[in-house]
Amino acid sequence: MIATALDVFWRKGLHDATMQDLAAATGVQRGSLYNAYGDKEAIFLRAFDQYTGQFLEAAGNALSNADAAAGLRRFFDMIIVNMTDGSPPRGCLTTRTALDAAISSTDVRQRVQDVLTRLEQLIGKAIGTGPGKRSAADASRLARVIVTYTRGLAVMERAGYSRKQLRELAGTFIDAVVDNA
Q1: What is the per-residue DSSP string for 128-179?
Q2: By the 8 A CB rule, do 153 and 80 touch?
Q3: Quick one: 124 exposed, middle or buried, by C-beta within 10 A (0-12, 13-18, 19+)?
Q4: Per-residue pLDDT tens digits for 127-176
Q5: What pTM was computed for the model?
Q6: 100: pLDDT confidence band, cut at 50, 70 and 90?
Q7: How far from 167 is each of 7, 78, 133, 171, CA to CA, in Å?
Q8: Cα separation, 35 vs 129, whole angstroms
Q9: Are 41 and 107 in contact (CB under 8 A)?
Q10: What residues contact 46, with CB distance under 8 A and at least 6 apart?
């Protein structure tokens, strides 16, 4: 049920999705949804938390490589596939939610900030450990730039850039980041 609700939120966004959309997609009556999960935002938060756990695990796995450049390439490929998957492509849930968060509750905004902070920490750890790598402070600052860049890729995807074009952009970015290490 939560995975199906997540798909609805991913396609429509938190504010455009309705309880009727959720009921139709899940096959659960609205009243039963309210009784089991609470309001639309409560369902969203539960779905977003599930997504966050899976996303951060996948990001950590992609970044786990002794070579920072190879880890970043796997990471960017994972997020590009994630946002270009589906027909039509579904985009980036975190970025979509961040844009919706301007009109959302404190809980939604905090969840978005938390996932981005945790992503920064994963990236900082991946690029800041091992021989010849950056200091922790430099890795942390660069990790924030990398996370910011991922949000830009999400916008480019929404603007119609193909998976191939996004991969080319990410490759150029990684080359610039690694060359300046």
Answers
A1: HSSTT---HHHHHHHHHHHHHHHHHHHHHHHTT--HHHHHHHHHHHHHHHHH
A2: yes
A3: buried
A4: 886 555 677 788 999 999 999 999 999 999 999 999 999 999 999 999 99
A5: 0.89
A6: confident
A7: 24, 10, 24, 6
A8: 47
A9: yes
A10: 2, 5, 37
Residue type, 110: Q
Report residue 136 as tokens: 């922790």
- For the residues of 79-104, what is the DSSP string, one character each? HHHHHH-TTTT---HHHHHHHHHTTS
Domain boundaries, the chain: 47-179
DSSP assignment string, 33-97 = HHHHH-SHHHHHHHHHHHHHHHHHHHHHHHH-SSSHHHHHHHHHHHHHHHHH-TTTT---HHHHH
Residue identified by tokens 């027909």 is 87
The span from the CA of 157 to the CA of 150, in Å, is 11
The CATH number corresponding to 47-179 among 2.60.40.420, 1.10.357.10, 1.10.540.10, 3.40.50.2000 equals: 1.10.357.10
